[in-house]
Give the backbone structure.
Amino acid sequence: MNENTYAKITKLIYSHKYGPQILKAINNSTVILVYCLYLILLMILAYNHDARFWRVLLTPGISFVLVSIFRKVFNASRPYEVLNIDSIIKKDTKGKSFPSRHVFSIFVISTAFYYILPPMGVVLMFLGILLALARVLGGVHFPRDVIAGAIIGILSGTIGFTLF
């Protein structure tokens, strides 16, 4: 994505009276909803002494730590650092853009849900796509960041829930 493309996209968003607020609401509410649902899933599994509890806890947890380390080492710049743009989603972070940890997290959690309750996993993956779009349109990630986050999240979840 370049400055001109981002300018055209943000012009469309700003042309709607509530465009930026809607984009920010999608970004924030999607993250909060999925994280809360994940905590509820963990509580239900723990309450029922379900053996899958540890897999549902450790697969996203370990994967999150590994992705965080990779991001710190790789340290890719964010769109608002590289392009001459004013991002809609305000963020002060420098670097650590690749892969998107928000998108990764939602997709690995979605995979956990898919492992336990497939229809809910599919719904959460749809929310992950919405979040990925919001993060790119909001100017805090490049498309490659969210695509990589989604792929790594799905692969981490699939490996954690099927191979071990």
